[in-house]
Amino acid sequence: MENCNSPSDQKSDAVTGAEVERDTEFRVHVFSSSSELVEKLHEKWDSGKEKPYPAMYSSVFGGIILDPAMMVIPIDDHMVHRGHGVFDTSIILNGYLYELDAHLDRFLRSAAKAKISSPFPRSTLRSILVQLTAASRCTEGTLRFWLTSGPGNFLLSPSGCPTSAFYAVVIKDKIYQHREGVKVITSTIPMKSPLFATTKNVNYLPNVLSVMEAEEKGAFASIWVDEEGYIAEGPNVNVAFITHDKELILPFFDKILSGCTAKRLLELAPKLVEQGRLKDVRTANVTVEEAKGSAEMMYVGSTLPLLPIVMWDEKPIGDGLVGELTMALSDLLWDDMVAGPKTHRLLVTYA
Ligand SMILES: Cc1ncc(COP(=O)(O)O)c(C=O)c1O
């Protein structure tokens, strides 16, 4: 389209032009060789500080990379310029991968919904992730992985991308139990429609804007409410409530991400029912009124695994203190991560 600039566009073009004029002194460096570029990349990482990313896998390279300066992906990968990629995250704690199979299953469900076929069968993906974690020598942190339609061109359709790509990275981090409560707000950023909310794809702009909105208002994060007025989820976490009748209630997962941690919590929480501390554990539609009137409230997600919420839209939840049942549920999840059954924790043999 030519000559379609509005007068205001022309004005902004003129301003840009003036800036270009003024910036003639600024010369963009042209790297004369790849070794000069590699040297430059190493400057960033060779500062003597501990490296936060001990290992990466790339199917484009066909192996594991230990040099953080080389942990790059191609700019013509359709995940980069079109958002055609899915991802997932599993926790590494005490040298064990927590819930890897649940995360891998969700990852492949997301890939199927995004019409991305994996370059490897599930067993190979799993083996790569375990070998990557072993090579990283990291015993505490996160393992993040992506499937993308792959590199090929800059068009919209991925039909010109010969093979899909698989990337994964190990990130060193402290994983600990949260004992302090946080403040949340109701998000004003529109939430994703069910197809996109239930697919863990890389288009997290609404999620990013939602957490930024919360931070701007002095809160930790936000809560999405769906079009029907029911509680949905947080920007990268699920949410759970304990009623004054001692019922643990989580919103249905049909319009939000099916959280692996929330699902595990639903399996573990009946122990508190057996002990007579909780009356019931269930999923349901939860209205804003019911949610705000709950006795206790919490975020649930892999990296937390559970975070008490004590204040919502400047009003206290229950008595405004961290709830006893919230911490009992947090202990259940934490014990499961630290010493739970082998079916949920995979021991990594470090080379
Ligand atoms: C939008 C969203 N909801 C919920 C979750 C929690 O899921 P999980 O417990 O598997 O980390 C996540 C994190 O993956 C998320 O991104």
SSE order and pairing:
Layout: H1 7-22, H2 34-45, E1 55-58, E2 63-65, H3 78-82, E3 85-93, E4 96-98, H4 100-113, H5 122-136, E5 140-148, E6 165-172, E7 182-186, H6 194-197, H7 205-216, E8 221-223, E9 238-242, E10 247-251, H8 260-268, H9 270-274, E11 280-284, H10 288-292, E12 296-300, E13 306-312, E14 315-316, H11 324-339, E15 345-347
Parallel strand pairs: 7-8, 7-13, 10-11
Antiparallel strand pairs: 1-2, 1-6, 3-4, 3-5, 4-15, 5-6, 9-10, 9-12, 12-13, 13-14
The site of pyridoxal-5'-phosphate has 11 residues, from helix 8.
Can you describe what's shown?
The protein is α+β, with helices and mostly antiparallel strands. The protein folds into two domains: 34-39 and 49-172, 2-Layer Sandwich (D-amino Acid Aminotransferase, Chain A, domain 1); 182-339, D-amino Acid Aminotransferase, subunit A, domain 2 (D-amino Acid Aminotransferase, Chain A, domain 2, Alpha-Beta Barrel), CATH 3.20.10. It has helices at 7-22, 34-45, 78-82, 100-113, 122-136, 194-197, 205-216, 260-268, 270-274, 288-292, 324-339; strands at residues 55-58, 63-65, 85-93, 96-98, 140-148, 165-172, 182-186, 221-223, 238-242, 247-251, 280-284, 296-300, 306-312, 315-316, 345-347. The strands form two sheets. Strands 7, 8, 9, 10, 11, 12, 13 and 14 form an eight-stranded mixed sheet that branches. Strand 9 and strand 10 form a beta hairpin. Residues 1-15 have low confidence and may be disordered. The structure holds pyridoxal-5'-phosphate. Pyridoxal-5'-phosphate binds next to helix 8. It comes from Vitis vinifera (Grape). Pfam families: Aminotran_4.
